[in-house]
């Protein structure tokens, strides 16, 4: 009787683990697809997130006070992260080479990855600009769609 009871518990636990693994695998990121989780970077030491749309005040509670870059409403913070604001809300996040090990995306991207590693994570279909140093994507949050050069120019007007 005791062996039968433990066998049932083992099957229930195994079934729950299978459900959890299946549920987790459904959240896998696919190249050329975008999700709300892609609109953030995470501090690796604290798991605090900096997301598009956050207020400058919220960001500075996490990162401390930034230094103006002199370009628009853009501020540089410790450990290689630059945040751009419009109306005191995050509209751009730039990770430079000094951010490696301090910040990463939900997909695991971080500074100093190769072009191919980034393309493997995010895909090539929606690349707006690709140069020796950058791969740029533009995404319209309200319309939930990637922007090409023409639609990006229209959105700026």
Major β-sheet, in short? Answer: 4 strands, antiparallel
User: How does the overall form come out from the CA principal axes?
Assistant: globular
Distance between the termini: 74 Å
Strand arrangement, major sheet? 3-4-5-6
Structural class designation: alpha+beta
Mean model confidence by pLDDT: 80
Return the string of H and E elements: HEEHEEEEEHEEEEH
User: Radius of gyration in whole Å, from Cα?
Assistant: 20 Å
Q: What portion of residues is helical?
A: 25-40%
Unreliable residue stretches: 3-26
Count of helix runs: 4
Strand elements, count: 11
Task: Describe the overall structure.
The protein has 157 residues and is of the alpha+beta class. It is built from 4 helices and 11 strands. The protein starts with a helix and ends with a helix.
């Amino acid at each position: 009787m005791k062996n039968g009871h433990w066998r049932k518990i083992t099957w229930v636990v195994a079934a729950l683990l299978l459900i959890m693994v299946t549920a987790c695998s459904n959240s896998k990121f696919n190249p050329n697809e975008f999700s709300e989780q892609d609109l953030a970077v995470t501090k690796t030491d604290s798991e605090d997130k900096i997301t598009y749309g956050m207020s400058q005040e919220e960001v500075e509670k996490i990162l401390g006070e930034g230094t103006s870059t002199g370009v628009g409403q853009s501020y540089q913070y410790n450990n290689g992260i630059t945040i751009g604001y419009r109306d005191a809300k995050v509209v751009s996040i730039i990770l430079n080479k000094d951010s490696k090990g301090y910040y990463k995306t939900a997909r695991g991207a971080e500074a100093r990855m190769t072009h191919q590693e980034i393309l493997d994570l995010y895909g090539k279909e929606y690349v707006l600009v690709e140069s020796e140093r950058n791969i740029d994507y533009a995404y319209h949050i309200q319309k939930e769609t990637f922007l090409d050069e023409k639609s990006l120019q229209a959105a700026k007007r």
